[in-house]
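Q: Hi! First time doing this. I have a protein sequence and I read that you can turn it into a structure. Is that right? Here it is:
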Amino acid sequence: METTFKKLAVRFTFFVLLITALSFAAEQWMPALKPTIHWPVILLIMYILTLGVLYLLVNSLKARMVKFVNTYLLVSFGKMILFAVLLFVYAWLNPDDAVSFILTFLVYYLALLIYEVAVLLGMNKPKK
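A: Yes, that's right. Below is the predicted 3D structure, encoded as structure tokens:
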């Protein structure tokens, strides 16, 4: 299972690097988008948290499916609460950049969530 996580971590790192390159390109060539100045920090925090979540979920796949489902629901709920608090605190402390920060955060969140679900669905398929 360790090698599975290592492969996932490498693929996930390449995915985040691709998002980073696209974000940098969008910031340079499409200034009308106006992403928040803190987009690298958002991406780093989400990268670390999602990598930790993937580790927990890959390890819970070793056990029964019930344990995996419970772990997935608990981790997803915890992530949502943590991210909601982060968004609220940032918006409260920096109201001028709040909309840009929240929109940038949501775009990254959706991209990483889609990746996470796709990886987990791919792992759950029976091998032929």
